[in-house]
Design brief:
With 479 residues, the protein is an alpha+beta fold. α7 crosses α14 and α10 packs parallel to α11.
């Protein structure tokens, strides 16, 4: 009741509204299965204090792991997130924290910890299990590629049941723990989704020897390189101007990866009507002018589903293969970090090209030709890690990527950056003393090496290598 004598009726929460609907429908079985708690991110001091009290009661007073308190520098890191479990009365009955391990830039290596459940809330309610699952989901949402936790030995069974993998025994607060890792398969799943069917599909089509799986194809008996890329129809439908731009971008990059200078483009356009076709061709024409590459001809058809493919022709006497690497070669990434996420494609497509001048674009696309490394591939929709897997596969070896050395824009999470289409990015392999690519505004760094074996591993600042791509990306084999 307020001071003026009026009263207020509490607004029901979403959970309460859902339960009311189930009650009206008479669905008692579902009501019986409804959890009597919910999990949310702690956003105010009261929730954080309640979580801290639970930790102190459990880890200091109940278990005697710490003296006085269990706080550490992770609690002071503003990037640390706390998830709490609240019961129906709103009381905090459990919590867990998670956040980046390193003090510097967030590399996508996070750790979870300080999982706690109030004594009266433990047992079959499954609060601890739900907190662990929520932490895993949140970590993956944040683009994390490595998620670790140090787990007390007695809790190892719970974590294993949830899919965590033990790494090694460790000591925390003079107590035996197990370092465990949540398997994040984002890179492998992304690479498999985009490229894995290619080997069986294309096995009957013979590419020129030494260029299997390459970005372009040398035309026998000439110095001509031909490349052809199609744009995903759904993108042509919803974003025709950008699709037109990208059809030039990806084809010029394909030529650039082989050290070829572009000569001209041929386009094939399908559209529902002339207005839609005009938007596709406007983007294509704008990109062709920006890159200084003429459109030589093509084919346009109206009254059909959206479709767009472009063939690019270039010239070089000495094509750079994608499969020319060997174990021991240094891997270098050269990428344009300017620009930002394309609107509507956040985390998937980085637009570094649409704001560049022609001279900048031509410098970047001419960089491989200027140096001619042993192997080169432009980063495709398979992402940086997946494309490195393709280069390694074509070279008959494996690869390791040093996460901390990868050139990356500050606005991109590591998980997004390693799996997105980055606009302009070249992966090259060569001797460790080979010169860098003279790519103008693009940034470059040695960030790994080719190894014996297969697949791609991610090497972290502590020396640990986690599996990113377990085997061949395309199944097309050695070039």
């Amino acid at each position: 009741m307020y001071l003026d004598g009026s009263t207020t009726v509490p607004v029901p929460t979403a959970t309460e509204r859902a339960q009311d609907i189930l009650a009206l429908l008479g669905d008692r079985s579902t009501l019986a299965r409804q959890p009597d708690f919910h999990i949310e991110e702690a956003v105010d001091k009261g929730e954080l204090k309640a979580y801290a009290r639970l930790r102190r009661d459990a880890f200091v007073h109940e278990q005697g792991l710490f003296r006085g308190h269990d706080l550490d520098d992770r609690d002071d890191d503003p990037r640390t997130l706390v998830l709490v479990a609240r019961d129906r009365a709103g009381a905090v009955v459990g919590g867990v924290r998670l956040g980046p391990v390193d003090d510097g830039a967030d590399l996508g290596w996070w750790a979870g910890g300080r999982l706690v459940v109030a004594p009266g809330a433990r047992g079959p309610r499954g609060i601890g299990t739900a907190l662990v699952r929520a932490a895993c989901a949140r970590a993956e949402t944040e683009g994390v590629l490595r998620f670790d936790a140090t787990v007390q030995n007695r809790n190892q069974v719970l974590f294993k049941r949830l899919g965590w993998r033990p790494v090694r025994d460790v000591m925390v607060a003079d107590s035996p723990h197990v370092l465990m890792r949540w398997p994040i398969g984002r890179i492998a799943a992304h690479a498999a989704a985009t490229k894995a069917p290619l080997g069986p599909l294309l096995g009957s089509l013979k590419a020129p020897r030494g260029y299997v799986g390459d970005d372009g194809a040398p035309v026998p008996g000439t110095d001509v390189i031909a490349a052809c890329d199609a744009i995903v129809p759904s993108m042509v439908e919803r974003d025709p101007d950008w699709a037109g731009w990208c059809s030039v971008l990806v084809n010029v990059n394909d030529l650039a990866a082989m050290g070829a200078s572009p000569v001209g483009l041929l386009d094939a356009v399908g559209a529902k009507d002339a207005a839609h076709a005009a938007r596709i061709l406007a983007g294509l024409g704008r990109a062709a002018r920006a890159y200084g590459v003429p459109v030589l001809g093509g084919h346009t058809q109206l009254g059909v589903p959206a479709a767009l493919s472009v063939t690019a022709l270039g010239r070089t006497d000495h094509p750079v293969p994608g499969g020319g690497g060997r174990p021991g070669h240094a891997v270098r990434l050269t990428a344009d970090l300017g620009g930002g996420w394309r609107q509507g494609y956040r985390g998937r497509q980085w637009d570094s090209s649409s704001h560049r001048r022609t001279d900048e674009l031509r410098t970047m696309t001419g960089a491989v030709a200027a140096v001619r490394p042993a192997a080169a591939k432009d980063v495709s929709m398979a992402g940086i890690a997946g494309t490195l897997g393709m280069l390694a596969e074509a070279s008959g070896c494996g690869a390791v990527l040093d996460v901390a050395a990868v050139p990356r824009p500050g606005a991109a999470a590591m998980g997004d950056w390693l799996t997105c289409f980055p606009g302009f990015a070249m992966l090259t392999a060569d001797e460790s003393d080979a010169p860098p690519l003279p790519a103008g505004p693009a940034a470059g760094a040695v960030c790994g090496e080719l190894t014996a074996g297969h697949g791609v591993g991610l090497r972290w600042p502590d020396g640990e290598i986690t599996e990113a791509v377990t085997g061949p990306v395309t199944g097309m084999g050695t070039a």
